Amino acid sequence: MADINLRAVEKQFDGVPALHAISAAFQDGEFVALLGPSGCGKSTLLRLIAGFEMPSAGSISIGATVMSNGQTGHNVPPEARNIGFVFQSYALWPHMTVRRNVSYPLEVRRTERSALREQTDAALNSTGLMPYADRMPSELSGGQRQRVALARCLVSAPNAVLLDEPLANLDVALRASMQDVFSDFHRRTGATMVYVTHDQSEAMAMADRIAVMSEGRIVQFDTPQTLYSKPRSRFVAEFVGEGTVLPISEVAKEDGKVTANLFGSKITIKTDSPNPDLACLRPENIQITENGDVRSIVKRCTYLGGRYRLTLEAPSGAQLIAESHVQFPVGAQVGVSIHTPWAFSEI
Amino acid sequence: MSPLKGFGSSRSEDRLLSIVLLVAITLTLTPVVRLFIEGVTEGDRFSLRLMQEVLSEGSTHSALLHSLVTAGLGTLVSVVIGGAFAFLVALTDLRAKAALVFCLMIPMMIPPQITALSWTQIMGPSSVLLKTLGVAPPLGAPQPLYSRHGIVLLLGVQHTAIIFLTLRAGLRAIPQEVVEAARVSGARGLRVWWQVIVPLCLPSLAAGVAITFVTALGNFGIPAMLGIPAGYVTLPTLIYQKLAGLGTSVLAEVAVLAILIGFIATCGIVLQRFFQSHQRVHLVGSTSRPLEIPLGRARLVVELTLWAVVATILVLPMLGLLATSLVPAYGVPLRLDTMTLSAWHEALFRQPATQRAFVNSFSLSIGTALALILICLPLAWLMERNPTRLGRLFDGLVDLPYALPGVVLAIAMILLLINLPFTDTTLYGTIWIIYLAYLARFMTIMFRPIQASLRQLDPAMNEVAQSVGASLFQRLRSIILPLSAPAAAAGAILVFLTAFNELTVSALLWSSGTETLGVMIFNLDDSGETVMASALAMTIVLVVMLLMGAIQLSARRLPKGVVPWQT
């Protein structure tokens, strides 16, 4: 097991920058999710860590070893990095049985026969694949294939496990159960895991920390709770959770409280910045009351099971997302009061 | 029957499909059936006597052995060259791949008798090129290519592209992730090749080997040009010699020989189909990113080696051919003062026989291409819309006349057309027998690209036209034809190219007045007019490269799978 350190890692493809000076440290044993919309460079970053791509500048180290260095051109090939990689397409070898697929990393390491058998059995057992050991990959279902891929990268006790959108090809029900498999796997092995996804609920459910990426940069790297409650940019506020970002003015401090003007009325805000200019309104910050200060019109009312999701239009024209236990007709006027939203200044 | 049949097709479509299918199947299947009947009858009765007789002759045995040996070893040569090229081009970061592939394709498109002629011009005592350079062996030294080794080498060179194309297609179907997964697991260098890449591309390699063997087995140009002077006879040349020497009286006898070679070829084709269908088994994953294993510092060396190979198998023989075509008489060294275009002038403008051959080959090729467009376009479309059992039968058979050795088809055509039923007329000796043989042989070259392009069309386009009331022929003309025109044009150029170069079929079917260019080169060289043969061959090579260039340039606008060397 090892930590992963990225120092000012840059990557260009034919002169077009894909990653801009990324620096981050993933702790030993940590489950890190790289989250971002498609094209943000998250898969590129993962492939750099795996060694499939060379950084254009900066360096990457796993444990104490510098794996690649863009300046010197030093690059440890993927086969020498002792990592596990789970591909979106699983990438099982179709000409080998499940058992051989799983034992292959040991085979290439010239592991002694009895140890090979023992470790392979352990990996098969822990993923529940023992009954399928002698099948070919084509005879397995999607979820089983994914577990073979997981068993394969688990078998050689890798320094780190890298996962590239491993659940993207599975249906919703299977996705939830595979999330548990990954979480259990992480808890049991204590492996450092880097998990690429564009699905925020997946990242929230599993990761210790999430690195939110946008246009080749890590815009915020925090625990899921912090990302949700204290976003530091408009992008994170809107991408993670359902946040409405609105400008605030007249920020003032009064006996330990910070207040600001939103929609022409004074509200209390939470912040750690000296002069915040934006507020992030989560559904739980918005309460629908008879005598709320902000008169809004219901634009849409969607049933979520047990509660309703309301899209409201404030007098200024801004859209708010609120939740309610009662249904409102579209076009109805409601009063809204806003409670201590998080405020930040866009960096 | 298709569940859509009731809605999607109409009676006029059904009728048209049956008619076109009937014509197509008649063209492709009846000659083969006729040939088989000839082999197992005597008079009008079933008899295996003739078959036993021919198959027990010594000349049959030695020709069979020679055919198997040269085709087998030639395939081996193709596998070595084509396999190396396929692996390197498909899997590594070589530069200028497109140019390399294009150059590797040319030997396949150049007719085999020209390949043989050009190679003999860079070896042996009378080579103009070697004389010019002053390194020719002394007079009386043997021509090293007039031997089994020569035939093997040239068969190998000629069919390199087939192995290359099938293997590269197989390699391209391997998702990059599968190889990356092996590297991440710790597998290094050759182990990745041996344990992952090779097992996955084995079916396509096996399919390539089978079809290369069949093609080499049926090759006539190379063993005819190199083997006949050396007295080394293979099955196709044995058939040619018997028929040329003794005429149609030995027809039944050569039919048995044709059945023999056809039988071996069919085994090969069946094997090839078997492997082809086992290719691409359950390969999961995206193949969008091509594999690019970096060669590092070795890249330049590898590139230079590959280009050197291309220079040896393509440029050098062509230079030899060019040199020979520019001297006044065979054996004169080429210098500035001896250089002359007289052979070109003689071949292109003076000789009535070569001019006739030009006219014949041009009209045959254009006629074949046009007729095949007219047959294949509606056929492919109707079969796509309306899959019937008859259609599937045709789909399985259409490759046969092309895959079977040319001699088999030629003998079958003679048998079929020497005496037209219910009349006294014969087509044997006329240009029509060559024409019909070409239609049967090259149908698949036109059919497959059109089929590929129609499969990529949205069926709704036709249904919309149908819903606004367009009749079958209106739809064919205004929807299907324009949309599949690029593929049909590419197919037509390919048919033209192949027909223009054709030798094997016409060598057995020509008679005075109906000679083709392929036959002409063979005859000129046979009668010692090597210089003129070279000039004529050079002209054909230029036409071939020009047409290939035209296809290459328009490749981007063509649907996938139409240009054979770009799939």
Q: What is the CA-atom radius of gyration of chain B, in angstroms?
A: 25 Å
- What kind of oligomer do you see? heterodimer
Measured by residues with Cβ under 8 Å of the partner chain's Cβ, the largest interface is: A-B, 32 and 23 residues
Number of helices, where a helix is a run of at least 4 consecutive DSSP H or I residues of chain B: 26
Shape of chain A: elongated
Run of helices and strands of chain A: EEEHEEEHHHEHEHEEHHEEEEEEEEEEE
| Lateral strand order in the biggest sheet of chain A | 6-7-8-3-9-10
Describe the protein's architecture and organization.
The complex is a heterodimer of chains A (347) and B (567). Chain A is α+β, with helices and mostly antiparallel strands. Chain A is built from 8 helices and 21 strands. A 6-stranded mixed sheet of chain A has the order 6-7-8-3-9-10, sandwiched between helices. The mean pLDDT of chain A is 87. By secondary structure, chain B is an all-alpha fold. Chain B contains 26 helices and 2 strands. In chain B, strands 1-2 form a two-stranded antiparallel ribbon. In chain B, a hairpin with a 2-residue loop joins strand 1 and strand 2. The N terminus of chain B is likely disordered. Classes of the chains: A alpha+beta (347), B mainly alpha (567). At the A-B interface, strand 6, helix 2 and helix 4 of A face helix 10 and helix 11 of B.
List keywords for this structure.
heterodimer; A: 347 residues; alpha+beta; six-stranded mixed β-sheet; five-stranded antiparallel β-sheet; elongated; B: 567 residues; mainly alpha; two-stranded antiparallel ribbon; 26 helices; 2 strands; disordered N terminus
Layout: helices, strands, pairs:
The complex is a heterodimer of chains A (347) and B (567).
Chain A: E1 4-13, E2 16-26, E3 31-35, H1 42-50, E4 57-62, E5 65-69, E6 83-86, H2 98-108, H3 113-126, H4 142-154, E7 160-164, H5 172-189, E8 192-197, H6 200-206, E9 209-214, E10 217-222, H7 224-229, H8 234-239, E11 244-247, E12 249-254, E13 257-262, E14 265-269, E15 278-281, E16 286-289, E17 294-303, E18 308-313, E19 319-324, E20 333-338, E21 342-344
Parallel strand pairs in A: 3-8, 3-9, 6-7, 7-8
Antiparallel strand pairs in A: 1-2, 1-4, 4-5, 9-10, 11-15, 12-13, 13-14, 15-21, 16-20, 17-18, 17-20, 18-19
Chain B: H1 5-8, H2 11-39, E1 41-42, E2 45-46, H3 49-55, H4 58-91, H5 97-109, H6 112-120, H7 128-133, H8 148-158, H9 160-172, H10 176-184, H11 189-218, H12 221-230, H13 235-246, H14 251-278, H15 298-325, H16 342-350, H17 352-385, H18 389-397, H19 400-403, H20 406-417, H21 431-455, H22 459-467, H23 472-501, H24 504-509, H25 517-526, H26 530-554
Antiparallel strand pairs in B: 1-2
Helix pairs in contact in B: 2-14, 2-17, 2-18, 2-20, 3-14, 4-8, 4-9, 4-11, 4-13, 5-15, 6-12, 6-15, 8-12, 9-11, 11-14, 13-14, 14-20, 15-26, 16-26, 17-21, 17-23, 17-25, 20-21, 21-23, 22-23, 23-26, 25-26
